[in-house]
Amino acid sequence: MSQNIEQKSNKFQSECKSEQQLGFKGAWKQKQFLILVNVKRFIIRILSLSFIRRYNSLTNHQLKVINDKTVFSYIYESQFFQKMLNQKCKNINFQKYAIIKHLVQFIKNHNKVIFPDSNFKIIWNILLITFIIWLTYLIPLYVTFDLIDKSVTQLPILIFLQDILIKFNTAYYKKGLVETSRYQICKNYLKNQFAFDLFILLLFGFIQTNDSNTLLLIELCLIYRISIILSEIEQAVNLQRKQQSIYQLIKLSVLVLYIAHFCGCLYFYVGNQTYLNNEINWIEENQLSESLFQGKYICSLYWAVITMLTVGYGDIRPYNIKERIIVIFITIFSCGIYAYALNRIGQLVQEIVQQDQEFRQNFGDLQQYMKKRNLSVNTQTKVKRYFEYLHQEKHDYSEKGQEMLNDLNLNLKNEVLTELNYQILAHYKIFLLNFSKPFLNELALNMKEKTFRPDDIVWESKDFYSNNQGVLFFIIRGQISQQINNNIFIQNKEEGDFFNEKVFLTDQNEDIQYISTCISTLVMLSKNDFLQVLQKYEQDNEMYFKIKDQVKNLGMFSKLDSKCEICGQFTHCYNQCPQVNFHTNRDKIAFKLMQNESQKRQSFVRKKVECLNTFILEDQTRFNALLQKKEIQESILDYILEYNPLKLDLNYLYEYINNISNYNEHLQNKILQLEQDNNDNVIKEQQTPQGQLQKNANSQEIYSEPEIKELHQCIQVQKTNIYLKQNEKQLTNKKFTKKNILQFLRKNINKQQLLQ
Q1: With 80 as the cut, is the pLDDT of residue 119 above it?
Q2: What is the pLDDT at residue 340?
Q3: Does 276 score more than 50 pLDDT?
């Protein structure tokens, strides 16, 4: 393993050196196609991440997946048509532009699919087959009697061209269900009937009126076309037994008349050729050379009918060798081969009836029950188509073959299973390119086959939790519908596809559901069986976990050969699709976070006085309150000593004044202590390193030491100003001071008397 890694690294280094030596021009010459492919892939990926382009480029299918009720698809369709007209019709005048615009609008308004069982389709088929029968009747007449009519070549072109347009808009039955997708309708018609219809149209377009060989070729093509249209009418119309008998009788009568018509024209054509060569012929012998067209044709038809149904009367008989030879062939064809064909058809019908007798009997009972319950014709047709499809599938793909394999011996059974299932695994790149053949052979023995009916749920998200494992499915036949989020359609998986590979390999459950749309046969591989076999092969085990990590961590879904069901890219799965899911540009966000943004700041010098913080203001308020209280006490003492307003005794007055003076000393000590604390705080701030350089958290301004000293001086000046203002106010308001002093003395004296 290490040797392989070294070889790969050496090879990579040598390739890098060679590319460096070549340069850009040399690399462009050698790998220009690969470079263009990678550039285109990069552009598509960048455009898909664009929000503007992503919103405007949503398809109708992506809008249905988003399931936004406020968005209408016809808005986007009108934008598409308008954009197309603006691009394609730049050089067209206004009148032509208006005509094209009205034509596009008409197509959009009448954009409806014709159902194969609709009345319009049935009536059109009846009219078309009537026209073709009339045409097959006229062509032998024109070839035989040299009639000239331009309608034989011009009118069929218009009719068949209209029929081609109708078929491009007619739905068809696919596995018992009506397929209404225009893409599938066009694909089916181009694949099956378009070439034949175009061939007939070209024959009528390039034919000359007297070209008998081309007219006969057209005759054969029209006969085959009649059989196709008759089968379509028989499938669309539900006839009862009596009606079917009458229909078969009419069809047989028309067939006999046409054969008689064709044989009569052929007999007259041979007689006319001998008449032109001046030989004895039946036309001259019966005196028809000068007769009108009607007389000649009636005699020819009379001879053909008598020859087919009886031995013949002999009134009209051949007279030369050519006539006798053609009579021999006509007799054999009209009598022997026609009788044998009718007998053989009867036998085939009887065999078909015997094989389908039980089915028809059961369905007849069901049809009778539906009619008695007054079930609509449309619903009866759906039931009929469904049971016919089930019956046909039982004949085409019988499950008895799988049951018979169980009767084989073990070695032969394993050999058969290995060969069958290995072909399935080898069909997919993920198994063929990444895992060894012995591992795949042993893995093929653990694969199981299962059949699902229409509308059966093959897999849903809750199965992952119930079984605690994923299951990988391979479609042998049938069709599987992929749905998410409450039956929102994503896509259909056809025969040859595999699905549920992301859940199987990454062990990550998805909110997804797979439903069978018809009878589907699937081959299943469980995760437990896969891991048990994988443990026996070391290299395959390493390869599996390598693929799992690449898909799970790096989003490399190309390793699974799995595209996004919405946009078709290999870089993500449907639930991460930027077209229908919100997808942030992670690279752009990471790039922004990695960039350094320069912060532009402007210097701002604040006013010095307004830089006082809350603590300084609080200390200033306390200081002013104590100072004011001290001054009031001193004024009280002065007033009492001078006037003695209450006329107290001297001893009592002395004691009272002494108490007040002691309290004043206490206030004086408090004031001194507060001033000392403020001075100490200023000194500490100046001595600390932060005092040299302080930062204001709000303004983020830096102050130097001289600015701090200046700030403290401003604070002291502000304190002094406040003190002077308060003293001045107190001195001017003497009445207020005396009144307060008297109230204070009275309160104190009353308290002391009560205490005594």
Answers
A1: yes
A2: 61
A3: yes
Residue 508: strand, helix, or coil:
coil
Distance of CA 128 to the CA centre of its chain: 40
* pLDDT of 418: 83
* Rounded CA separation 351/240 (Å): 20
Residue 630 counted as domain residue: yes
Within a domain: 599: no
Task: Please give the pLDDT value at position 703.
Answer: 44
Side-chain half-sphere CA neighbours of 315 within 13 A: 8
State how far the alpha carbon of 236 is from the alpha carbons of 1, 131, 230, 368, 388, in Å.
66, 19, 10, 18, 13
- The one-letter amino acid at 434: N
Q: What is the pLDDT of residue 355?
A: 57
At 698 the three-state DSSP class reads: coil
In-domain check, residue 606: no
CATH of the domain at 414: 2.60.120.10
Exposure class string for 572-584: b at 16+ Cβ within 10 A, else e: bbbbebbbbeeee
Assess whether 443 and 512 both reside in one domain: yes
**In 335-487, beta strands by DSSP E:** 448-452, 457-460, 471-477, 480-484
**Pair of tokens at residue 441:** 């052979």
Q: What is the DSSP letter of 46?
A: H
Give the whole-angstrom CA distance, residue 741 versus residue 637: 9
Residue 736's pLDDT band (cuts 50, 70, 90): very low
| Sign, CA torsion 206/210/213/215 | positive
Give strand pairing partners of 245.
none
Count the domains in the chain. 7
As a whole number, mean pLDDT of residues 304-312 equals 73
pTM summary value: 0.44
Record the tokens describing residue 731, joined without a space: 């001195």
**CA dihedral sign of residues 229, 233, 236, 240:** negative
As a dihedral over the C-alpha atoms of residue 337, residue 343, residue 346, residue 347, rounded to 10 degrees, the angle is: -110
Q: Are residues 371 and 341 in the same domain?
A: no
Rounded mean pLDDT of 547-557? 78
**Residues 233 and 281 grouped into a single domain:** no
How far is 185 from 167, CA to CA, in rounded Å? 8
Distance CA 574, CA 312 (A): 78
Name the residue among 648, 721, 644, 718 with its Cα closest to residue 678: 718
Query: Listing from the earlier edge strand, what are the strands of the sheet with 480-484?
Result: 457-460, 512-516, 480-484, 488-493
Task: Find tokens 């299918």 and name the residue.
Answer: 61
Number of H helices, E strands in the chain: 31, 12
| Cα–Cα distance measured from residue 142 to residue 213, given in angstroms and rounded to the nearest whole number | 12
556 shares its domain with 446? yes
What lies within 8 Å, CB to CB, of 674 at 6+ separation is 619, 622, 623, 626
628 and 487 together in one domain: no
In a domain, 608, yes or no: no
**Terminal Cα-to-Cα distance of the chain (whole angstroms):** 111
Helices 650-687 and 705-732 pack at an angle, to 10 degrees, of 160
The first and second tokens of residue 137, run together, are 């009747």
Per the CB < 8 A criterion, the answer to whether 417 and 205 are in contact is no
Residue 399 has a CB neighbour count (10 Å cut-off) of: 11
Average of per-residue pLDDT values in the chain: 71
The domain containing residue 698 runs over which residues?
A: 615-755
Whether the predicted pLDDT of 214 surpasses 60: yes
Residue 553's pLDDT is: 77
Helix spans in 696-733 (H): 705-732
User: Which one is predicted more confidently, 644 or 377?
Assistant: 377
More confident residue, 282 or 105: 282
Please indicate, yes or no, whether residues 315 and 445 belong to a single structural domain of this protein. no
Q: What is the C-alpha separation between 387 and 139, in angstroms, rounded?
A: 42
Are 31 and 84 in the same domain? no
In the Cβ-directed half-sphere of 114, how many Cα atoms lie within 13 Å? 19
| Cβ–Cβ under 8 Å, residues 495 and 503 | no
Neighbours of 37 (CB within 10 A): 11
Q: Which residue has the tokens 């021999």?
A: 328
